[in-house]
Structures are given as C-alpha cells and as structure tokens.
Amino acid sequence: MKLKFNRWTEEEFMKVREEVLKQWPTGAEVDLDEAVAYHKALPDHKNFAKKLIDAKEKGITLAQPRAGVALIDEHIELLNFLDEKGGADLLPSTIDSYTRQNKYEECERGIIESRRAGRSLLNGFPGVNHGIEGCRKVVESVNLPLQLRHGTPDARLLSEIMIASGFTSNEGGGVSYNIPYAKSVSLERTLLDWQYVDRLIGWYEEQGVSINREPFGPLTGTLVPPSMSNVVQILECLLAAEQGVKNITLGYGQCGNLVQDVAAIKSLREQAEEYCAELGYENMMITTVFHQWMGGFPEDEAKAFGVISNASVTAALSGATKVIVKTPHEALGIPTKEANAEGIKATKMVLNLLEGQNISDSEELNAEVDLIKKEVKAIMDKVAELGNGDLAVGTVKAIEQGVIDIPFAPSMYNAGKMLPARDNQGKIRYLEVGNVPFSQKIVDFNKSALEERAEFEEREVGFQLTVDDIFAVSKGKLIGRPE
Amino acid sequence: MEKNGKKVVIGVIGSDCHAVGNKIIDHVLAKQGFDVVNIGVLSPQEDFINAAVETNADAIIVSSLYGHGELDCQGMREKCQEAGLKDITLYVGGNIVVGKQTWEDVEKRFESMGFDRVYAPGTPIEITAKDLKKDLSIAE
C-alpha cells in the first residue's frame, strides 16, 4: 500500500486487518462488534477520553504514572497500589520492550522466567501474549481509565487486542514511535502502521466509543527544542484526525526553563487547533500532556523529588490537562511500586497547591510563544511543500532531508545534523540548525542566545555545551556550566 | 587525538533503544584514544560477537538501560568462547536489571555469567575507560 495522507477505505483497512490478526494466536480473539458492546457496558469513569474532557472543562491537571510488570495478578496489584496509595488519576499499562519489537516468543520466555524467579524480568506488561482474557482481567480489576503506553513502531496487533479489551487510550505515532524507538524501520512503514491504528480508533469513534490518542511528545527526551517536538505532535495530530480520531492529547517533555515550557504548551495547543481548523477537522477535542523531566535524573532520592516537584509546578502553571509522573528511582531504572506511588503523591501535592493558578502573560512569555510558532510554521510549510500538499509524504521527505531532525535519535533515517544546547537562562536553542529551514533571523537569534552563554562561561560555542547539558540535571544543575 | 592501539566494540544489547549514552560513550572512548566499533542500539549478542571477530577487537562493552539485561546477557561469554574470542575482556553496565536490587547481588549474578566488570547505574564512562586501560595494559 502506498502512503498517502488520505483516510483508509473500509476495504483497505479490512484487508490489512486480516493479516495483522494472524501475527500471534491471541489475535484471533478480537471481535470488533463484541468489543464495541464491551466498551459501551463499561462505566464512564473508566473512559480515558471522557475523563480528559472533564479535566479540561474544570481546568485541572491530572496525574498519571508509568507502570507495567510481566504477570497479570502482579500488574493488577501494582495498578491498584498506584491508585489507592499514590492517588493516581489515570492508569497506564506500560508495555515491555520485547513486545515493542514484536518479539512475542521472547515475551513467553520472560513470562516463564518471571514466574520462576518470583519477580518481573520484563520491563513492562506483555499485552499481546496475555490476550483479551488477560487484558480484560486488568480492566475489570481497576477503577480508573487505562492507557496503553509503549514505544512500538508496529503497534497494530497490540492496539487491536488492548483496545478490544477495554483500554481507552493509546500512546504513539508514526514518527514519535519510530525515530526515538527504532534503528532501521522506514518512516513509510511506521506512518502506514499508525494510520492503521488511527483508523481503528476512528472506527470505534464512529460506533460511539471514544478512544483517546496521544502522540509521544518528548521524543528522545534529550534537549529537543520545543518547536521540533511541537511539529511532530501537530503532524501526528493531523494524521490521526484524517483517520477519524477525535480525542487527542498532544505531548511535550519538560525542557527546564519555566517560561519556555509554558510557552511550548501554549503554542502547541493553539497551533494544533489552528491547523485542525485549517484542514477542516471539526469537533476535535485537543488536550495536552506535560512529561516531567525525561533526561538523566539524580540518584539521590531527595534530589529526584526536587526534580519531580519542579516539573509539577510547570505542569500546573502551563495548564496541561495531565502530567506524566517520574519516580525517585528514575536514575536506577524501573521503580518499585512504593517509589512510584511516592512520585505521584509529591506531584499531586504540588498540583493541588497550584490549582486555579496560572502564569500571566509577560513580554518574555509572549516573545517565546511567538518564536516557537514561527519556527513551527517554517518547518510545517516546508513539510507541505516537500509532499506537494500531502503531509504524510511530506513528513517522510522532511525527515529524510533533515527538515525535521531529532537530536540523539537511534534511527538511521534521522539526519542527526541538528544540535541543541541551552542558552544562559536554560532555554533550549538550536546550536546547529543543520537542514532545518529557518529564516536567517531565527538562526541568528538562536546563535546569539548561545553566544551570550558561552561568553558568560568564558568558552567557545560548540558541542561541549551540549554534552555538559545532557549530564547537568543528574549532577544537580539545569545548565552544564564548566566546573 | 593519539590512538592507544586498542579496539573496543560498544553497543546497547537486546530490544533496548536508549541511544544517548551510547553516543556519549563513543565520543569519550574515541577521545581517549580507543578505536571504537559502535554497533549501536537494538543489538543482539551475535552482533557484538561478529563485530569483535571481524575487527579483532580487544574488548566488548555491553550497555543496557531498560532492565532486560539479565535476559539479554545470558550465555554471552559461552558464545564468545565458541566464536574464538578466548577470554576477551567483557564489561557490562547501565540499569541492567528490573527494579532497585542489592548491588552486590546484581554484580555477582553478572560476574557468574562471565563479565569481567559490572558497572552500577550512573557510573561515568571515564571510570570504565580507566579500568579498560588497566585491563588492557595501556599506559595512562
């Protein structure tokens, strides 16, 4: 099938679907009509899309952890612990990394060895292997809406099984679950595979079952300039809307400068709505998610709580609809359920204290919003031009040519010519633009902001700034100043 | 920069796509004079071993950030021996198990799998570089 921006026909979808469901035996359990009836029988308080609409109307920020283990009973115990002891508003099922690579045989080995060892050897919940029966046991044993969170380039079967099981939100996208999560999967492939997932969710929407979709905002989580991640979010929003998705949460990973972070969420929300209106998508429900610091964390747990609390302040003041919570074990890998609950509690305390407050407009904030929007527009215009008006084809070409360029990405299809670094206030700027199509004025502005920092630190503008910035937060500072 | 004449294979094992640390390790080891063969992320054991055989490497450094290290590293030393990489220097580091566990237990578990050195989360690559120079008899 050739990649086009257009909505898939019923025939195209059903033809591919037949093959998808054969990829693992549990695929045969999926029956769409039965799944619609199952969803309609679920109470409203278990529907992710509805809970987000409610939060947006109330102007509050919801807290959601990441969590997932290999075995069903342990997974349920973990999720209920995060609800009852942590106070989570929304629940996840984070999927293990073998499933993300479609290696279901290795998942079986992980499940068996986890049973034998009495602890999870997988870093998440292997949803495909557990099938509808196992996933529904989870849905029926918890009291909050559930989202599947992963990092899967080809999530077609996983999405079929978990949505049919009663999960009402799905994270990912053709760019955001490829460039940061794969080494050699082509963009055409992942964009098609995510059009399938979006079409599936569009189909449920047409049957009266609203499923939330969330493109993955932070990308590599490493000094991604806000305009670059916002472009990816807006494109994935439009790609999903074209397939009939209505309830979309756009993501952004904390950069660390309060003003830049608030400006990023504000411009993301506004520009996404503008582009949706421009392309004629009606009745869209756009919400936002703020990811607490995605880079390296300090090992010291008290310091980690500092990072978590700081991020919660920004999440609240930015007006994001939800925040994805980190834990005091972040520097060490997968957290215990106790540490995970503590991260949620710290976050919720800060959110509660700031409820109803926001950051008022200032010259600095307005200038940052204006800059982000101009940078986004320059890239979006070029994407449309490269695709001759087709945004799917344009996205592939834009990544191929480095017009969209994600720093520190594992994918061989990413140019990797753009380099970011922090300016003297900690805002992330473009150190090298590579082939990102900015006007000379924007290039010069980014450069002068970095020159100001380098002069302050009495050193040259260069890659060493970037390297120092990558490790700065784990060492206790936002900006990687020379020691 | 001056070359020290030793070749080291680096990469991120299994279904792990954490790329940032891998790029930094490459940058620092090259700066310290090592000839770095970087096989990148999402690399099975066979890719490490094939790269080491093909380039006649002196050491292999396995990174794992996502918790499956324990499953991914099983049998690696035996496969090295079979491939003719007799007693090649073999290190592993990162967040190599799921969850916060007693470090001494984790270290023992990986040493018994045949790893010469096992690095705890957050170890700077500069420390590994120093150990590598010692183990490969390179003068500082």
UniProtKB/TrEMBL annotation, chain A:
EC top class, as a word: isomerase
Cofactor annotation: adenosylcob(III)alamin
One Gene Ontology MF term: cobalamin binding
BP-aspect Gene Ontology terms: anaerobic L-glutamate catabolic process; L-glutamate catabolic process via L-citramalate
Residues binding adenosylcob(III)alamin, per UniProt: G68, N123, P180, F297, K326, E330, I334
Alphabetic keyword roster: Cobalamin, Cobalt, Isomerase
EC numbers for this chain: 5.4.99.1
Pfam family, one: Met_asp_mut_E
Catalysed reaction equations from the record: (2S,3S)-3-methyl-L-aspartate = L-glutamate
Amino acids binding L-glutamate: R66, R100, R149, H150, E171, Y177, Y181
Quaternary structure note: Heterotetramer composed of 2 epsilon subunits (GlmE) and 2 sigma subunits (GlmS). GlmE exists as a homodimer and GlmS as a monomer.
Family statement drawn from the similarity comment of this UniProt entry: Belongs to the methylaspartate mutase GlmE subunit family.
Protein name per Swiss-Prot or TrEMBL: Glutamate mutase epsilon subunit
Organism listed in the record: Ilyobacter polytropus (strain ATCC 51220 / DSM 2926 / LMG 16218 / CuHBu1)
Classification lineage: Bacteria, Fusobacteriati, Fusobacteriota, Fusobacteriia, Fusobacteriales
Automatic annotation (TrEMBL), chain B:
Role played: Catalyzes the carbon skeleton rearrangement of L-glutamate to L-threo-3-methylaspartate ((2S,3S)-3-methylaspartate).
Keyword Flavoprotein: no
E.C. numbers: 5.4.99.1
Pfam families the record matches: B12-binding
GO molecular function: cobalamin binding; metal ion binding; methionine synthase activity; methylaspartate mutase activity
Protein name: Glutamate mutase sigma subunit
Catalytic activity: (2S,3S)-3-methyl-L-aspartate = L-glutamate
UniProt similarity note: Belongs to the methylaspartate mutase GlmS subunit family.
Cofactor(s) this protein requires: adenosylcob(III)alamin
